[in-house]
Amino acid sequence: MGLEVNKGDIQELVEEHGQELTTNKHHEQQQEVMEISSPEEEEKKAQESFTSNEIMERCKM
Hints:
The protein is mostly helical. Helices cover 79% and strands 0% of the residues.
């Protein structure tokens, strides 16, 4: 009582594994794209961030 494996089974397994790797790679690339900010977003972040001196000055008002 052994397992029977033919070339078709092996090919199917290889193709499924390749598709899975491709999907994972695509997901990783999507995350990288989401992490990259546009210049406008970077400028907005810079405007929203303050140094500790700026915060202290604003608190004195």
